[in-house]
Structures are given as structure tokens and as C-alpha cells.
Write a structure and sequence with these properties.
Layout (H helix, E strand, L loop, with lengths): L7 E10 L5 E11 L4 E6 L5 H14 L3 E9 L7 E3 L1 H17 L8 H5 L5 E3 L4 H74 L5 H14 L3 H20 L4 H22 L6 H22 L4
Parallel strand pairs: 3-4
Antiparallel strand pairs: 1-2, 2-4, 5-6
Helix pairs in contact: 1-4, 4-5, 4-6, 4-8, 6-7, 7-8
């Protein structure tokens, strides 16, 4: 099963058979981008409230995450002719003239204001039978439309998977490189601590006690657990990518854990000097790769 991107676009053309043999052509479009949850938005002509409820149900059954916009555009040539409410506009103009005369005011009526009155503009709206025929046709096209969108999201998901796998390879290489430097860093850390303690307490000191204290400090600075957990996270990440499906939130959580391990690794190895600077460089490179991966994962369903 592939992973799916939340970015996609699909469009289908259709037509509905109306009364009297008339055909109403339309374009049904579906566009999606990334979002934490499934956010559905519809742009439908007036009179299709019941259709919106059906479309919402179908979308929830087929999509998991993403900001999804569905729009239905009717053929302009088939649009009903629009007109205006003669009685309402006439009453507005008459009221304007009466007020102007009564209060001896100057000015002319604003036609734009008149046409913005509720109910001023009106069209020869289609009857319920025509709207029902349109809704039925749209529902029939919804299935192919969603499949087209999912197909594009799957292709985008393949590209995301390739990018993330390459990132994992670089993270794994950096982790192995740090692991290779760990023994030498531990020896250097122990020598450095021994020298500082000896300098601080002078020649008369309990060497065994100092060595015990050094061992405790070295153990606290040990990065083996961070490296082990980082390798485990990388392996789990690969499994999720190969398993596919709804993996975006899990992948994002794993990257947060990886970033935490990289931060701990840097804090434990800072200031050691020598080849310790290489670990710092590798740790910063790991954080950069993790951040790149997080940007990509935000678009995984």
C-alpha cells in the first residue's frame, strides 16, 4: 500500500438530462492540500443543500486528511436568465424620491445600492425535478472524481516516499559515523576529566576515588542509548513508509523523537574538542535532515 500525499487535483465533465430533453452541462472539480484533519469545503449552486450532505458523506468515506475543495460549475450557456424584482426596485426609487422632496435634499438614487437589496436580483430558478436530476448526475461522477484525485495523491506520495527514504539513508550514515567516533570520544573525555581533577586536588589525592567519579561522569555523557534509539526510530520510519496508508501523523511523531535524540547527543558531546567537533557537525547535519523530512511529512496523509 503506498503512502498518499495530501496534494492533488481532479476534474470531470458531466451533464444532466432535464425536462423537455434539455441537457445541463457542468464541471466538477476537486482540489486538496495539506491539513491536520479532513477539512471539506463546497462551492455549489443554490438549491443543492441535500447534495452537499451526500457529497460530504462520500468524501469522509474515501479521504482521511487534507483541506479539500469541491466546486460545481454549470455551463454558462445553460444558466437560467437573471432579472430583477420590479416591485421592490420601484418601491426603493419611490421612497428615495419622496424623502428627497420632503427634506429638500440633493442627490440621485444609487442603482448599485438598489440591486444589492435582498431579493432585488432574481433568476428563473430551476424546479426541484431539474435540481434532483443534476444532483443525481453529480453523485454518479463523484466516484470517478475521487479515484482520479487519489491516483494523483498516490503519485505525489511516491515522490515523497523517495525523498524521505533518501533522508533516512543520510540519517543512518550520520548515526553510524557518530557510533564509530564514540569510543575515542569517551577516552578523550575520561582523560580530560582526569587531568582537570588531578590539577584541582594536587598530587595528594585518592586516585581510585577520582577514577570512580570520572567513570560516573563518563557514563552520564555516554551517547550509546541515543544512537540505539535513533537507529530504532529510523527502522520504524522505514516500516511505516513501506506499510503505507495513513502514516503522516506517526511519521511526524517519530521525527520529533529523532530530533530529541539529536539534541541530547549534541548536549552530551559539546566541548569535548578534537574529534568531538566531528560529532557536533554530524549532529547538526542530522537535525537539518530531520527538519527537511518534517517539511515533507506535513504533506503525507
Amino acid at each position: 500500500m503506498p503512502i498518499y500525499s495530501m496534494t492533488g487535483f481532479a476534474q470531470v465533465q458531466g451533464w444532466a438530462a432535464l425536462r423537455g430533453g434539455e441537457q445541463l452541462s457542468y464541471t466538477l472539480s476537486l482540489k486538496s492540500v495539506n491539513h491536520r484533519f479532513l477539512d471539506l469545503q463546497f462551492r455549489l449552486p443554490a438549491g443543492l443543500d441535500a447534495l452537499e450532505m451526500e457529497l460530504r458523506k462520500v468524501m469522509k468515506e474515501n479521504l482521511v486528511r487534507g483541506h479539500v475543495d469541491l466546486s460545481l460549475a454549470l455551463d454558462r450557456a445553460a444558466q437560467p436568465k437573471s432579472g430583477y424584482n420590479h416591485q421592490l426596485v420601484s418601491a426603493y426609487l419611490a421612497a428615495f424620491a419622496a424623502l428627497r422632496e420632503e427634506f429638500r435634499l440633493a442627490g440621485e438614487p444609487d442603482l448599485n445600492a438598489a440591486l444589492r437589496l435582498p431579493g432585488a436580483l432574481q433568476g428563473d430558478s430551476r424546479d426541484s425535478e431539474d435540481m434532483a436530476a443534476l444532483a443525481e448526475s453529480v453523485l454518479q461522477q463523484t466516484g470517478p472524481l475521487i479515484e482520479q484525485l487519489k491516483s494523483m495523491r498516490a503519485r505525489e506520495g511516491e515522490a515523497l516516499q523517495a525523498i524521505l527514504l533518501a533522508t533516512l539513508d543520510r540519517l543512518a550514515e550520520a548515526t553510524e559515523a557518530v557510533a564509530g567516533l564514540r569510543p575515542e570520544i569517551e577516552r578523550r573525555f575520561q582523560e580530560r576529566l582526569s587531568q582537570r581533577l588531578a590539577s584541582a586536588v594536587g598530587v595528594e589525592f585518592n586516585q581510585q576515588r577520582v577514577l570512580e567519579e570520572v567513570a560516573v561522569l563518563v557514563e552520564r555523557s555516554d551517547i550509546s542509548e541515543e544512537l540505539t534509539r535513533m537507529a530504532a526510530h529510523i527502522g520504524h520510519f522505514r516500516e511505516l513508509l513501506e506499510g503505507g496508508g495513513e502514516a503522516g501523523k506517526k511519521l511526524d511523531f517519530l521525527l520529533q523523537e529523532m530530533n530529541r535524540e539529536a539534541n541530547t547527543l549534541l548536549s552530551k558531546t559539546g566541548g569535548v574538542g578534537g574529534k568531538g567537533t566531528l560529532i557536533t557537525e554530524l549532529g547538526l547535519a542530522m537535525k537539518a535532515e530531520i527538519e527537511k523530512a518534517r517539511e515533507q511529512v506535513q504533506n503525507v496523509e
